[in-house]
Each structure stands twice: as structure tokens, then as C-alpha cells.
Design brief:
This protein is an alpha/beta fold. It has 9 helices and 15 strands. It has helices at about 40-50, 125, 130-140, 160-170, 185-190, 225, 245-260, 275-285, 300-310; strands spanning about 1-5, 15-20, 30-40, 65-75, 85-90, 105-110, 115, 150-155, 175-180, 195-200, 210-215, 230-240, 265, 290-295, 315-320. The strands form 3 sheets. Strands 3, 4, 5, 6, 7, 14 and 15 form a 7-stranded mixed β-sheet that branches. Strands 10-9-8-11-12-13 form a 6-stranded parallel β-sheet. Strand 12 (about 230-240), helix 7 (about 245-260) and strand 13 (about 265) form a beta-alpha-beta unit. Helix 3 crosses helix 4 (about 160-170).
Length: about 325
Amino acid sequence: MKALIRDRYGSPDVLEVREIDRPVAKQHEVLVRVHAASINDWDWELLRRPMLPLSRGTPRVRILGCDIAGRVAAVGSGVRRFHVDDDVYGDLSRFGSGGWGGFAEYVCAPERALTLKPARMTFEQAAALPQAGQLAVQGLYAAGPLKPGLKILINGAGGGVGTIAVQLAKLQNVEVTGVDSAAKLEMMRSIGFDQVIDYTREDFTNNGRRYDLILDTKTTRSPFEYARSLNPGGTYATVGGVGTRLLQVAIFGWWIRLTTKKAIRIVALKQNKDVPYLNERFEAGQLVPVIDGFYKLSDAREAFRHFGAANHKGKVVITME
């Protein structure tokens, strides 16, 4: 089979499409013929550097890609939920031997990592949903159910999480502001954002406006700056960003909550927990993933460069065909 391999950390230039042996499903695994996989922040970070600072040498994860969609090609003897020719999708980042492996024509995945794909959902749409969709749900509901009249801000709103989150949030009677680059603002308006902010022209933490919930995909500022943009009793929820800033959120979040009654939270992904909800919203016509691409596996370097430049709108999806 063909797979996107890297033997060292670095830029997208280290990625190569090679022929390798097709994996074989173990007892509780499913062999999936991958039709599409999407790029996540984890893929980008793992491409360039090890997750642990002291790690050296050949990367343990040689085939990146965790959000996959495809068709079951074989099942292990202990698999009960799936059969050959079922269409499935899911997040493989914390399952299997080191996880990932999605940027390949075939991948083995534990049964519990997958769910059936709705018939109307394309493989590309399914590959765009697992991580971004669940981070959107878990970030939006970090402080409990959304109540009518809430003012919500999404930072990094033109990417995968933001373009899904706004569609889910607007199912309630809330106002949603999105922050991203100027090139994405028109698309953001078209999918439901009530207000949009070009971060190169306006600092939302310093414009005097206040929000009940801030969902952040970037985390590039001090938690104290985010806290001043919250209404009393408001919540700041981050789902990713710069490591040093995330550390500050973890360290100072309790102090901010103690002194201001504003919640500062890091949302840790609960993997594959909310896929049924995402399926329901898709089948109800209330959620359509925004996809940037499609790129073929042979164009994967270009796809990663596009993702790394943060110019993508929604999810960058790579097809194996």
C-alpha cells in the first residue's frame, strides 16, 4: 500500500509517499481502507518536533493522520460491531500502537475508535469531523448548556473547530463573534457568525467588549488578558494553542477564578464521545463541515504547508485516491 512516511522531524519536506506492507488486523482491530483523512494541529506539531522535549532520533509515529474515514476491509476475530464493507470514521490519535497512521491507504484501528458513517455523509466530510467536531462541542459546553442571549466569541474561528462550533452554537438563540484573518471573514459570515473581527486590525481582548463564553483555538495571550474580556461569571475555554500560554492557563486559571469568579479552563479532548451527537446534527441538516481541499496523498506536502501557514478555511482533507 501507499503511505505518507517521515523518518525524522522537520518541515513538510521530510514527508514522502512510499510503498509499505499493508497492516493486518489483530483480534480486536478493524482494517480500514482509508478514503480520506484530515490534518489536525497535533499532526502539524508532531511533524516538526517531538511531543516530549527530550525525545530524539527517529519519530515513533512515522505515519501521521488520526481523523480518518473509510470502508472496513477486514475485521479481527474479536470484533462485533463492524463487518466488511461498513463505512466508518473516527479519531485514532490515542488508540493502537502509538496511534495515528491515517495518511495511508490502509490503517488498523481498535473497534472502539470507530463509528458508522451516515450514508449521506461523504468520506471527506466524515474525515473533517472527529477531533474538530468534538473539541467544538466540548468547548461550547465547558460551562454547561448554552442559554438564550449568551454572547460567545470564538478565536481562530475560520479553522476546523470554529467553523463547526458556530453552526452548533447558532442552533440556540445566542450571538457569536468570530476572530481570524481578513481572508476568512467572508466565509465566516456565510456560515453564521453575527460579528467578525480581523485580528490584524483589532485586539478583541482590548476593545472593551465582553463575552459570556470565549472558545479559543489559538491561546497566544496571557489568561489575564482573556479574563478581562469576560462578563462576570463568564468562561474562557481553550482547546489548543501555544504551549507556554497553555501552561499559564493551567497555573493561573485557579487564581483568576478565585479572585474574579470567571472560569479559565483547558478542554482536554474526550475522544469519540460526541460523535453520535455530530451524526445527529449532520443528518438533521444542521451541520456541514467546511473543507479546504481536497488534496491527494501525492500532494500531502503542499497540504501540510497550507495548513502550517494558517491560511486554510475549515479542515484540510487529504484523499487516498
